[in-house]
Fold this protein.
Amino acid sequence: MFLSTDKELEKDLQFFLQNIVQNKSLHTRWLNTLAFMEHIGSRKIIKSQNSMTLDHFILQHISEEARHAFYFKNLAYKLSPSDCPNFEESYMIKGSSSEDYFQNIDHKAEEELADSPDKKLLNYLYTTWMVEERAIVLYELYNQILKNNKIPFNLNFILREEDHHLKMVIQIIQQKDPDFKERAIRLFKYERVAFTSLVNEWLTILAREEQFCGKTHV
Ligand SMILES: [Fe+2]
């Protein structure tokens, strides 16, 4: 795993998620944000790959990301439909910044692969590698918090599928890119900064909402 363990970041995420699940409106908007990010993931693969050369794995990947988007959307909808009618900014938690995070790491991979003969495929694979590693860390923490708070759903099947995507893309990258180790170190360093900045934005929204509700942070 190229993602370095960062205790501070993990603590921030735990704090964020623990507070999110206790507020129905925030939790709905969080689930809607995750649905949006999964949808962006699925759309990005479709837009980036040539339909004529799509193989079994990539088609499976597209359909599973779209299914994850609907799973999160459905959970949000069951919790509070009036808080998630669509993906407009007011129905998410920093949805536009979450999309920026995705676009930024995709552009960084594009820059990194500018001279590669396989850049279209490798760009998709490296972006997936970074996003899936991050998603697994985030979803495992969230899953544990759902369990601790006795919330009646879990992310087990999503975690299994993300883990499969991750293993597959790493395997293909290793076959196709002889420079994958050095490249991955550079890209993961960039991803960490981008994700830390996104978490800080999520925390700012949480602080603003809690201030509005009369709560204070500890
Ligand atoms: Fe996913």
